[in-house]
Amino acid sequence: MEKKTLMVIGATGTIGSATCKALSALYDEATMVIKAGVRNPEAATALAELPGIELVKAEMGDPGLAASLVGIDCLFIVSPGVADRAPLVLKTMKSASTAGVKHVMVVSVLNAGTDSIFGRQFKFVEDGIKLLAFDWTILRLPLFMENYWAFKVRQAKASNGYREIWRKLIHFCV
Fold first, then answer.
1. Where is each NAD(P)-binding domain found (predicted)?
2. Among 28, 64, 79, 168, which one is most buried in terms of CB atoms within 10 A?
3. Do residue 42 and residue 100 come from a single domain?
């Protein structure tokens, strides 16, 4: 059986790093080449310590990204938590198509296509992946409570009186 090469781009985030950790535990270097696409390889020390993980400098939306994707059989794209995530993911998918990637998996949300900020953004991503020249998989993940509560905590005014309540609430939700 031919050894496959998989790359996770967006590998330093919560989903990307958990994916790399799981892949590292499931596959050895004789079975699969696993690459972690990160903006700054020097800062990705936790990923560098995982057995069988090769760090690759790769930034979503970068015009030179296609060169980093040559030879990749499967690309797992973890959408970044930025306002312009949809165009960045689409540029990344186009780079994958240019590089000859055979299969692209992209993280989406359950409410893709609805009239909400995430729904509109991820409908754009899902529509885009279907138009490109590779096999594709869309992983629709639920909205995460820590994202909601993190926003609320950032909006809260800091005070000693409520600090313990917030800490317990966040711990309960995570």
1. 10-147
2. 79
3. yes
**Pair (33, 113) in one structural domain:** yes
Lookup: tokens for 163? 């600090």
64: left (phi over 0), alpha (psi -120 to 50) or beta: alpha
- pTM reported for the whole predicted model: 0.82
Helices (H), the chain: 14-26, 45-48, 65-69, 85-99, 117-129, 145-155, 160-173
Which tens digit of pLDDT belongs to each residue from 72-120?
999 999 999 898 999 999 999 999 999 999 999 999 998 999 999 889 9
The sign of the torsion formed by the CA atoms of 139, 19, 148, 82 equals negative
CB atoms near residue 80 (< 10 Å): 20
**Which residue has tokens 């970068």?**
62
> Do 44 and 100 lie in a common domain?
yes
Give the pLDDT band (50/70/90) at residue 2.
Answer: confident
